[in-house]
Design goal:
By secondary structure, the chain is α+β, with helices and mostly antiparallel strands. The protein has one domain: Rossmann fold. The chain has five helices and four strands; from the N terminus they run H-E-H-H-H-E-H-E-E.
Length: about 130
Amino acid sequence: MNTEIYADAIISVVLDTPRTQLRDVIASDPPCSKSAAIDALEQDGKGFMPRVACDGGPDGLQLVKPIINKAPQYLKRNGLLSLCLPPWQHVIENVPSHVRASGAYTNPVVLKDGHEQACAVFAHAR
């Protein structure tokens, strides 16, 4: 799977606008399960979602990272990127460092749910 093309497609299809029409917010709930975890579910017969809906590649971030890198092209200055990532996937702890490394956002904020588990990352475009 070409993740760069796929990430562009996700953003382009959702926005359905040219890049010249910038947005205030991009919210994404991307596939973020590690491939090995999906393989285990499929072997156990527990997999009930299509693989493309949950497979985030070997590290679970195969689609998250391109979205982080591509979203600023579609966001207004100070526009918000919101990434919803379920805590049980154990990938969210790696997302803030990728947001910071992109250099396109202010410091990311990690939102916790009612059980004090990280569940979303917010960052504003520079």
